[in-house]
Design brief:
Elements: H1 8-18, H2 21-26, H3 36-54, H4 58-64, E1 67-69, E2 72-74, H5 79-88, H6 107-120, H7 122-141, H8 144-156, E3 159-164, E4 180-183, E5 189-199, E6 208-216, E7 227-233, E8 235-237, E9 243-247, E10 250-255, E11 266-279, H9 285-321, H10 345-377, H11 381-416, H12 419-422, H13 428-436, H14 445-458, H15 463-478, H16 486-512, H17 515-550, H18 555-572, H19 575-584, H20 588-591
Parallel strand pairs: 3-6
Antiparallel strand pairs: 1-2, 4-5, 5-11, 6-7, 7-11, 8-9, 10-11
Helix pairs in contact: 1-3, 3-6, 6-7, 6-9, 6-10, 7-8, 7-9, 9-10, 9-11, 9-13, 10-11, 10-17, 10-18, 11-13, 11-14, 11-15, 11-17, 14-17, 16-17, 16-19, 17-18, 17-19
Bound molecules: flavin-adenine dinucleotide.
Flavin-adenine dinucleotide (FAD) binds near residues 165, 258, 446 and 450.
Length: about 600
């Protein structure tokens, strides 16, 4: 059975040396008590949970899957006990509102914990992040009464949350949903309709499940402007926030049989006049849901990165053990008939591609999480606003680019193991299956790319990009005296020029032909992702050089970082050229064929 090891050295390096988390938290009164020592204690404890509680039931959970019998869903053996231990450890309320029993911890911290949970057991992690996201939405948009009734138990982990958006005919285009909310005399609503693909829609892990449901009132405006958000509990709750024991009219109709994340229950949910409570304002449901979606999308990127790391751990240790063929150069072991496959340049290509993207992906996720924290906690309004702009720009890229690179890393890891990567024993084939969904749900990656190119770039005339460039300028200015950094900084400048050229090109082209936006979008998201990974590597390299100069401890670790960063610049970044060319080639060759010619 594959064993997962929490990447604590990398995590500490990123938090302390690259992002200086303690200094950032000290600027914000609500996080000022989150010191390096506290961070270390929490991350180490979370690492133990991932290694000791979640990883051991990952493979068995995949093999057993969830069960559906007479409308009741049960999770695989060991999940309930693990969830209870997780909840009793206080993890469910880590980032929650302190006024309702949450611990008010920053997202930077919980992002790392999520990455470890996804790496160790993606199915389990999904139950936890859906609850966190639902509680967050409730805390932002719920009335005081709803918050007081529901949040404490969601933070305690005895109740869990879901998000019910998708319907059979409405996935990406939620404006088409048909679920109805009919007002009752007592200010509640009767919710009726069918939602599909609902993660954690039913299960046996918690006493109650709190669904956040998108629905339309009978007289609502057509399309996305007529959508409202409702809270619908599985078991009705009394005025003291305790279970009445009376089941609401919401039932799980079936669970999906799917490619991966088999221990995560993906449910068809039937609402048949279920009692619901309005969250926030009428017809503002979609924008309220976006509170949750920025966080959930970040989590999906972390799923990709976590599974990539789990795959890298297996593949890199395998490559040091497995002997096949002779080393082409001086690495040959004398007296042996074959060498470990790690001597082969092509095996190194795969491992270094994985490692370089995992570190950059983790850094990008932390960067996005830090902006979520600043936008939530910072006392300075201008800083909060700037962080909101960065969140808007970064999240679709982090979601799509980290999940694409994450899936690619799982496949590369599988390739490093050859035939042994294809069989179940080593865990790589499960990682490939579990990582694939992250490219699809929470908005398919093509739709993230479209969001980035259309709403976040063309529509605002590239203004958000300028905010990102200010951050890059500040960093570059700080490195002018560091000679080792100069060749790397040049690469960032070149990549940035390509991005500016591509942006101008699409903005100009879109004025005459709206298809230019969709035609450029995927390559543009990838060019942006590559540029951001380059920016993250600059920051990692700068911190590694600085740390290497101030201490001889961990010299080998910093040296490894510098070598991996150099590989990224030489072997992965050049793709930016072909992406820029692809973007500027325009829409014509994509749109030339008629539908019948496909
Ligand atoms: C395992 C699993 C768990 C899920 N969990 C949840 C959950 O908890 N809650 C929930 O509400 N939903 C959930 N979903 C649903 C998921 O979010 C949707 O499947 C996803 O958003 C895509 O919607 P769709 O499947 O209807 O595809 P469609 O919307 O039909 O899209 C199909 C393809 O067309 C592309 N496309 C669509 N529109 C456009 C456009 N305008 N421009 C360019 N390309 C476009 C998409 O990128 C995609 O490649 C889950 C799905 C799965 C499989």
């Amino acid at each position: 059975m594959p064993t997962y090891r929490a990447p604590l050295t990398d995590i500490q390096f990123l938090l302390r040396n690259v992002f200086r988390a303690e200094e950032l938290f000290a600027e914000m009164p609500d996080t000022a008590e989150v010191t390096d020592d506290l961070i270390t204690a929490i991350v180490e404890e979370a690492g133990k949970i991932a290694e000791g509680l979640l990883s051991p039931i990952n493979q068995s959970g995949d093999q057993e899957g969830c069960h559906y019998t007479d409308g009741v869903v049960t999770t695989p053996k060991g999940f309930k006990e693990a969830y209870t231990a997780y909840a009793e450890g206080g993890w469910a309320g880590l980032t929650g509102d302190v006024n309702y029993g949450g611990q008010g911890m920053p997202k930077m911290l919980s992002a790392l914990i999520e990455e470890m949970s996804f790496a160790a057991n993606s199915s389990f992690a999904l139950y936890t992040i859906l609850n966190t996201g639902a509680a967050l939405t409730l805390s932002h948009h719920g009335s005081e009464q709803l918050k007081a009734l529901y949040l404490p138990k969601m933070y305690k982990g005895t109740w869990s949350g879901t998000m019910c958006l998708t319907e059979p005919h409405a996935g990406t285009d939620l404006g088409m949903i048909k679920t109805r909310a009919v007002p009752n005399a007592d200010d509640t609503y009767s919710i009726s309709g069918t939602k599909i693909f609902i993660t954690a829609g039913d299960h046996d892990l918690t006493e109650n499940i709190i669904h956040l449901v998108l629905a339309k009132l009978p007289d609502a405006p057509a399309g996305p402007r007529g959508i409202s958000l409702f809270l619908v509990p599985k078991i009705l709750v009394d005025e003291a926030g305790e279970l009445t024991g009376e089941a609401n009219n919401v039932r799980c109709g079936s669970i999906e049989h799917k490619m991966g994340i088999k221990a995560s229950a993906t449910c068809v949910m039937n609402f048949d006049g279920a009692k619901g409570f309005l969250l926030g304002e009428l017809n503002q449901g979609l924008s309220h849901m976006f509170t949750m979606m920025n966080y959930e999308r970040l989590s999906m990127g972390l799923q990709g990165n976590g599974l990539a790391d789990s795959s890298y751990q297996i593949a890199s240790s395998y490559a040091k053990e497995r002997v096949q063929g002779r080393a082409p150069s001086s690495e040959r072991q004398s007296g042996q008939i074959a060498d470990p496959i790690i001597v082969h340049p092509d095996v190194r290509r795969m491992l270094l591609t994985m490692r370089a993207n995992i570190l950059a992906g983790r850094a990008l996720s932390l960067y996005a999480a830090s902006q979520l924290d600043i936008s939530r906690f910072h006392p300075n309004e201008a800083k909060r606003k700037q962080a909101e702009q960065l969140v808007a720009l970064l999240i679709p890229v982090q979601k799509a680019y980290c999940t694409d690179r994450g899936f690619e890393a799982c496949v590369l890891g599988q390739q490093v193991l050859g035939g042994h990567g294809y069989v179940a024993e080593w865990g790589l084939e499960q990682n490939v299956r579990d990582a694939r969904i992250a490219q699809i749900y929470e908005g398919a990656n093509g739709v993230q790319a479209l969001d980035l190119m259309g709403r976040k770039t063309v529509r605002v005339n590239g203004d958000l990009l300028k905010v990102l460039f200010l951050e890059m300028d500040e960093f570059v200015a700080s490195q002018q005296q560091i000679s080792a950094m100069q060749p790397f900084l040049q690469k960032l400048t070149q990549c940035r020029e390509l991005l500016i050229g591509a942006t101008d090109n699409v903005i100009a082209g879109a004025a005459d032909n709206p298809d230019e936006i969709g035609a450029a979008s995927y390559a543009y998201m990838e060019l942006m992702g590559l540029t951001l990974y380059c920016f993250m590597w600059q920051r990692i390299l700068a911190a590694a050089y600085a740390a290497g100069e101030s201490t001889t401890d961990s010299a080998d670790y910093y040296d490894g970082l510098i070598k991996t960063g150099t590989f990224f610049m030489n072997r992965l970044l050049p793709r930016s050229q072909s992406l820029a060319e692809e973007i500027t080639s325009g829409a014509s060759s994509l749109m030339a064929m008629s539908a019948e010619q496909f």
